[in-house]
Amino acid sequence: MIEDTKQILSDLIAFPTVSSDSNLAMIDYLSNRLEDCGASVDVFHDESGKKANMFATLGPNTDGGIVLSGHSDVVPVTDQDWDSDPFEMVEREGKLFGRGTCDMKGFIATTLAMAPGFAKQVRDKPLHFAFTYDEETGCIGAGHLAKELEARAIKPSVAIIGEPTSMRIIEGHKGCYEYRTRIQGLEGHGSSPDAGVNAVEYAVRYVTRLLELREELKSMAPKNRFDPPWTTINVGALNGGRVPNVIAAKAQIDWEMRPVQTSDADFVKSSMKRYCEDVLLPKMLEIYPDASIQTDIIGEVMDLMPTDENEALRIVSELTGANTADVVPFGTEAGIFQSIGMDVVVCGPGSIDQAHKANEFVEIDQLSQCLKMLDKLGQKLSS
Q1: β-pair type (66-71, 158-161)
Q2: What is the mean pLDDT of the chain?
């Protein structure tokens, strides 16, 4: 089975499904393989028609059952120093190299390799496959898929999200909210700073307020197992201006927060809104009536909350033999599936430490461990 997995993974890596590009060729490949196993397959396109989610089912058309889920998109390779073609899988020293081997086409490959066997083993409850687009840019595809499932009254009870966890069971993670704030000021000569509205200076004030809130959040954290245990804020980029002697008319701030609770996110957003409306904008508008501060949502990825009763945790613990479950700071699509009524865990091959880097890889042993878990799942389906 590992050789089948390696071949499928090689095929998947050859699809350059960077989030900015189409994933349709890969979705066609996945759909065809699952249809060959007898699965019913639905493909849901986005508004552009260039991307799609795929949802496939083996077994009866009933409520309940298990979802095996992964995202088809990968992060860019631009400006990364790879030792080989990132879209051609290479095997060396027990590792498979290529963009997406770890995050997270390795898991998808294992599910496809096991699908023919699953088709023979499934009995009273369905087994679903959910493969999405644009996870790396805000879990957009999973959000759209969740709406489709609700509209069609499809109600699986359990979801296993195969993000790279080194096959550890993850029962909780923080949310991940990403934003882009654009500041429009008034250009002018640097010798008369009061005659213009310096967008870069107001961007600095905006960032300063974000960092003040970051410190306040440390004292607001509820008791939890996250590391760090509070909601974090990070400013990833600040761009604006061109030369020292010109008042900058435009500035852009890319920032994120990873809330441990929804109330923290609401606190940050409302605080920044008041700060802009009560402090920054009045000063800007005194000089330039068309000055503005606009914040766009890049993505708001829901958190995965640990629960006292979690059927997914019970099942995966039984399959893997693990008697503990962890929490992690990075985000996944899991919270979206939880929000529509499923019990969810994250468990998949590969280490998150390898994700998004040059020479990304997954260890073959990790894929073998995942195959063993899925083999036991197949046995469970037939019992």
Answers
A1: parallel
A2: 96
